[in-house]
Amino acid sequence: MTQLLRTHLYDEHVKLGAKIVPFAGWDMPVQYTSVKDEVLAVRNNIGVFDVSHMGEFFIEGKDAEAFADYLVTNDILSAPNGKAIYSPLCREDGTVVDDLIVYKLAPGRVMICVNASNIEKDFNWMKSKHSGFDCSFTNLSNVFSLLALQGPKAFDTLKPLVNELPELEYYSVFETKIGQHPVILARTGYTGEDGFEIFGTHQTIKDLWQKLIAAGVTPCGLAARDVLRLEVCYPLYGHELNDEVNPFDAGLSWTVKLNKTKFIGKDVLQNKPSKYKLIKLQLDKGIPREGYPVLNSKNEIVGQVTSGTMSVVTNKGICLARIQIDKAPADEVFSIDIRTKAYPAQLIKKPFVTGGHK
Q1: Total domain count, the chain
Q2: Which residues, in sequence order, are CB contacts of 246 under 8 Å at separation 6+?
Q3: pLDDT by residue (tens digit) across 201-217?
Q4: 124, 152, 251, 297: which has the highest count of C-beta atoms within 10 A?
């Protein structure tokens, strides 16, 4: 049996009484008190997540931005330095290898943060495309720990703990220090709320975690993180995104910049119609779960749930679902098959919860 990895904060989680579960090859905290308490802490106040299992790659040199721009579908070259850019990473056939964030730290210096389960896959894929670009490409995932500080009080809580923290725009990145220790701060997160993702050495992040907990910040686990991201309809690799779908199938057409000169998958994506449509459904009764069939008004299967849960904020069952476009019902009437019983589901056009990010 493969030994699960542990972040450098593992002992801190155990001390706080976290329930630990296997996730993407890691022992990770799924919850501390209750999922409801942790979700509401982030929506109304402040919470902190250990996301040190995520991967960090660095591109440095003359062609750093050009290489990053070629790898992903979104536009890296036109973004100013100090910006973070969300994007799918695609194959030549347009299918999604992963979704990630590209950070333009400085001229000739780019960081890419990838999902924990895909670190090796992503690095090998990108490395195979590195030829012809004048830049280095390194995997420094083992060097960094990462905290996600999320909630309306994130800025005010973080500001006195770091040497400098300007009023960053949403999806901006800034390099500063905690004492003598360099950190990378991005005004990003996966909850829909304001907040920061803080990259630093293992000891720096451990010290910061302890200061945040001492300051009364609520520690939050993966279960709350999943509810939070689903309430604001953020996709998750392995659910809304996978090796079989393209960005259009996952509702990410806004990330595909076909006016770029060249990127991996462009030739196919510019001529490829979507086969699927990602929709948002809400239930007054029943909790939708991944894999449950989505039905039309004639009880015919037209798709399936990709992510589902009970929303803490709305107190209703919510889900994202992938339906086949050629089977999409004109009357937009849906239900979800939960243990052989069809539960009516309302089609929602906007996110279930409006986050408070800047």
Answers
A1: 3
A2: 90, 94, 95, 96, 265, 268, 269, 272, 274
A3: 999 999 999 999 999 99
A4: 251
